[in-house]
Design goal:
heterotrimer; A mainly alpha (about 325); B alpha/beta (about 325); C mainly alpha (about 270); B: alpha/beta; 8-stranded mixed beta sheet; 4-stranded antiparallel beta sheet; 12 helices; about 25% strand; C: MetI-like fold; about 0% strand
Amino acid sequence: MFVYLKKLFAMILTVLLVLLITFVTFEIIPGNPALSRLGVDAQESQYEALSAELGLDDPLGIRLSRWLKGLFTGDLGISMRYSVPVSELILDRLPVTISLAVMALALIILIGIPLGIVSAKYGERLPGVMITVISQIGMAIPSFWSGIILIYIFGILLRWVSPGGYVPWSEDAYGAFKSLILPAIAIALPSIASVIRYTRNSVMDQMKNDYVRLAMSKGMNLNSVLLRHVLKNALIPIITVLGMITANILGGSIVIEQVFTLPGVGRLLINAITTRDLPLVQGMVLYIAFIVVIINFFVDIIYTVIDPRIRLGQRD
Amino acid sequence: MNCENEPLLEIKDLKIGFKTPEGPLHAVKGISLEVKKREIVGIVGESGCGKTVTALSIMRLLPDNSFATGSINFSGIDLLSLTEDEARGTRGRDISMIFQDSLSSLNPLMKVGRQIDENLMMHTSLDKAERFSRVLEIMKGIGLPDPERTYGKYPHELSGGMRQRIAIAIAIVCNPDLIIADEPTTALDVTVQAQILELLRKINRESNRSIIFISHNLGVIREICSKVYVMYAGHIVERASAEALFTNPGHPYTLGLIKALPKLESKGKELFDIRGRVPSIADLTQGCPFEPRCDYSFERCRKEFPDLKKIDSDHEVRCFLAGGKL
Amino acid sequence: MNKRRINLWIGTVLISILMLMMVVSLFYTPFPVTEINRLERFEPPSARHLLGTDNFGRDVLSRIMKGSQTAFFVGLVAVSIGSVFGVLIGAISGYFGGIVDEIIMRIVDAMMAFPSILLALMFVSVFGVGLRNTIIAIGIMSIPSFARITRSGFVQHKELDYVKNAKIKGISNLRIMFRHILPNVLSPIVVAASMGFANAVLAEAALSYLGLGIQPPNPSWGRMLSESQVFITVSPWYAIAPGIFITLLVLGFNFLGDGIRDIRENR
């Protein structure tokens, strides 16, 4: 019980840290937002009026508390470019990004882990080495390039999917799937390679253990031993990597959405940066940050729950 | 030929080596031994002498880079000549093994009852309920209190002694003819050690199973074994009944092991230690492998390798001094 | 014997080839990089233009060669920034421990939990785009992993006898940290540097692809990819070539890092 409280406390601390850094980055450093909004040629009076309206003249403490209060009520400010609440813009584009993330995660787990196990089973022999080399290459390929190549091969040459555009789930599920599968693959590729590597190492580590020998002495064949005994033990350290994988997927989606021109949160972020729409950028950074923190927190909790040695406490 | 006296396991001139990038390493350099039905045979030696490797080779559980020659005859079949699948068929069902460290040899994430049950599942056609009652029966039989509750525990929740009992349960549940116990009591307290030894004795008595008991501790071997093989640097250097080994040790190494046993009378005095170290697996010598550490060695020992010489009925020694009094 | 060093060999070979290309490009490229030739647009690879031409008729190979300069430069400086600051922070954190260590590690962990590209984007969005800011952004992005590795090394070593001996002799903490402990902890840091270089190349490529990294006229493989994407139906090789070179360079440093790690483990 105490362990969980400690973790919760740590998470809150991290959240506060993130808030602080974001506030400093976006409220303090850029100088005066009113100036950048109106441009250098604005009239002194216009500038003053806008400053007053935005509350920029208030002392730092008040600005900080106002900002925090806004966060808790879900008000992330108003986009300068679209003149629409940031939270609205984000929610609008959330479905796309979440669909991508879920599909990518499914690919990573369903392809990465089995291949990692196979690679470990064959160890230093040819299939094992081959998989390792392929995953090395997979980690080196820039995801946006694989996206481009995928579009070229499947969208243009083979014409299996249309090269661009997004179809909402509500309209046409199959169409939506087709428009999302290629970007999901592009996002997943480097993480699949990572997971293969981690799984391989974890399984190979487990196979050095005595309980594997005991299982074999019972007369089990290698495959059964791998699946029934080793897998569970090997997966535990891999769960800790889940947090990193989520970060990779989120980061990947920022770039990939641009490649495939999908109306997701990532692309919104890029547009915001390009147009220097700081409230929008800030809002999205916060949103992504929270997701990361919360997922890491849950991964932490899951980790302690799954391992009975931690859950029930060590005896000796 | 009297079937009763036909050996259950007969190893003839077994040599085991490993292929490494630096060349082949020879762990076992030609040993022969015999286990009769209902016998408890001990193999004693310090770590590195090849006893564990021998045990693993009987189970055909050696790593891929190993090679073995000779024959391991089990109930008429040469285990070394079997294919992997055929060899697998003997494991758990005809021959089973108990490992030294019960904490690492049990799956930490699986309930102990299930680990026993798994064996039944593989080798019998009993249904779930039948298996469950059989597992509880075994658990009771080996002295586990409250089997029903213990069934659902994880290995780390049990004491060392209880865990080793679980390991024993796993080994006997399918009624194998031969159990190989590799240092089963080494990691346990002395009092628990005695309990486990008594358990093994009981199993041997009541179900006529043969046991190969491997240890570096001659005192424990004496407690439980009827016949003992002493191994050193991949060779058998002495074979005798447990009695004869202690009353009339033939090999200087055996003598050293006996002297090294802590006795009540020697309380307060320094423990005897055989000088020198066990040769590494890569050391090759022409003469007797024990010569560098032997207090009785002479010129011949350095140059020639001694054969096994019979000094009594059922007592053989690999030493040029065999037959003389040490 | 060479089987164990194969990672090292592959990495070194790959990097050497690309570095050679980079050095050559400082003095010579088959065609001037900025020469626009309307008549030779979108030519497929030929004897004259080994990798074809782009939408402006510029020789792709020459542009790739020039782009390698940026890749190596950004990688080198960014990793330098990351390693210097990261090692410093990690050393202080690991050696002195206590509340300073707790705070620093919290911040480092928070940074590592983020998608790294996001950190770089945050920096660029506030301070602007361009070569200098790209390098700084990626440098900052690299700090956490160096900090962590250095810290764990220092935590391990500060309990060892030779450190205690040095303290008894009265040697100053600073000297102990950097003259005594650091050389022993160098090996994993070098591995991290190699991997960091690979990550830096990928990060620069991504940022430039998004238009938020290296700006024209500085050449960048990432930006070449974004330019080429529009024309992929007409000249696919223009889109393929930069990607291949990015992959090769990243592979090179990944193999190198693995190779160094292998050597260390086999000792």
